[in-house]
Design brief:
Distance between the termini: 25 Å
Largest sheet: none
Radius of gyration: 21 Å
Number of strands: 0
Structural class: mainly alpha
Number of helices: 8
Mean pLDDT: 86
Strand content: under 5%
Shape: extended
Order of helices and strands: HHHHHHHH
């Protein structure tokens, strides 16, 4: 069984801060879907949505509906709490980190080979062909940096 090596701290939020973090997610969903469409999908009217955006706290049923519509709607709130939301069956992007690095290395070596289309220079098409692997590695390395920062963060003594 895995145990955390660093105990997370409780991070109480004031109501205004909680609302502001939630509305960041709301705003992102509105930009993506449009205000009317977002309001319809979460089961509120546009005036009710405007009221929420200006200070009224949505009910949990509305927050739940928003999460169904836009899975990242709670990201800012969760980040503030030191948490993140992942699917129950999600595979961590660092589970096969060595395999990911090896796959990207092979693609990079092929792209930089003298007989490749760009010779020793990586062409646009070769770079685009590596995009998915680069993005996966970027996510994995970002998680590692987050873990390192958490380890270096000063801890309080209870």
């Amino acid at each position: 069984m895995l145990h955390r090596t660093v105990v997370g701290e409780k991070r109480p939020l004031s109501k205004p801060r909680l609302h502001a973090l939630l509305m960041e997610g709301w705003s992102r969903a509105i930009v993506k879907l449009g205000k009317g469409a977002f309001a319809d999908k979460i089961g509120v009217s546009v005036p009710a949505l405007d009221k929420q955006l200006t200070g009224s706290m949505p009910g949990f049923d509305v927050i739940d509906a928003a999460l169904d519509v836009c899975p990242t709607v709670l990201d800012e709130y969760l980040r503030e709490k030191g948490l993140r939301l992942v699917d129950q069956e999600a595979v961590c992007d660092t589970d096969d980190a060595s395999l990911l690095i090896a796959r990207l290395l092979v693609k990079l070596q092929e792209a930089e080979h003298p007989d490749s289309p760009g010779g020793r220079s990586v062409t646009h098409s070769e770079l685009l062909g590596m995009e998915a692997l680069i993005r996966q590695l970027h996510g994995a390395s970002g998680n590692w940096i987050g873990q390192i920062e958490a380890l270096r963060r000063p801890r309080s003594v209870a």
